[in-house]
Specification:
The chain is mainly α. It contains 11 helices and no strands. It is elongated. Pfam families: Sec10_HB.
């Protein structure tokens, strides 16, 4: 709109010379465009702040502790659940949690509103910032959870849902390693307590997480296992060789 006004009202009547960067009209136009860009960026940032506040609100109020740390069930009940149950009408639920589904729907609704209303470069910047902030919110939320081996299935399903949304909806390639690392992070909760060496190998494998998480950070997430105090000694022995002793 600014360019159209400039061409029709200033450049065409030769009131302003488009080739003279010192022309007062050109300088005023450039200053106004800069002010407009700053205002748009500030508005988008406010929108992202509000979106992330809502995401964190959903995480805090709709995610029960039993999503990732379900109550233990008797072996006979677990078998019946996997096989479909006797009159229960359903098998083991391995899909994403309701909270993750609502968060993806919320983020998708906000990002779709900008599609077609702004240029691609601005949309990519917005989506990239949303993805980065969403990743940070998920990491923060995960550090507040207790995750059991049974609950790891739901956690991995949630991470897969987030990753697929970033891949198919946000479409920012630079974000994919971050959410791929979250998917890999779920594996440390799926390993049975009896396999401490395998758990230690996953924690120490930096390549597995694509450089997104250092071993120290993965170890911090591993501490959110529901059985951490039972497996900690064996995991640290496998990681740091604490079984060695000085004679």
């Amino acid at each position: 709109m600014i360019d159209v006004f400039y061409e029709q009202q200033l450049a065409t009547p030769r009131i302003a010379d488009r080739n003279d960067f010192l022309d007062p009209a050109n300088m005023a136009k450039k200053k106004f465009e800069q002010m407009l860009d700053e205002s748009v960026a500030a508005g988008l940032n406010k929108g992202i702040d509000a979106l992330m506040a809502e995401v964190e609100h959903l995480q805090a109020t709709t995610q029960p502790p039993t999503d990732y740390n379900p109550l233990p069930v008797a072996p006979t009940e677990k078998t019946a659940s996997v096989l479909g149950g006797s009159g229960g009408g359903g098998g083991l639920d391995i899909g994403p949690t309701a909270t993750a589904t609502r968060i993806v729907a919320l983020v998708s609704g906000h990002t779709r509103m900008l599609a077609g209303t702004t240029d691609k470069s601005m949309l990519d910047v917005f989506n990239a910032e949303v993805g980065q902030r969403l990743f940070a919110a998920i990491c923060k939320h995960l550090k507040r959870q207790r995750v059991s081996v049974d609950g790891a299935v739901k956690l991995i399903a949630d991470m897969n849902l987030y990753s697929e949304h970033v891949r198919s909806a946000l479409r920012i390639p630079d974000l994919l390693p971050y959410f791929g690392a979250l998917r890999e992070l779920g594996q440390i909760y799926l390993i049975d307590a009896a396999h401490a060496k395998e758990m230690a190998a996953v924690i120490a494998d930096g390549d597995r997480f694509g450089g997104v998480f250092r071993a120290e950070e993965v170890y911090e997430y591993a501490q959110r296992r529901a059985d951490w105090y039972l497996v900690r000694k064996n995991v640290e022995r496998a990681m740091y060789g604490m079984e060695c002793c000085v004679m």
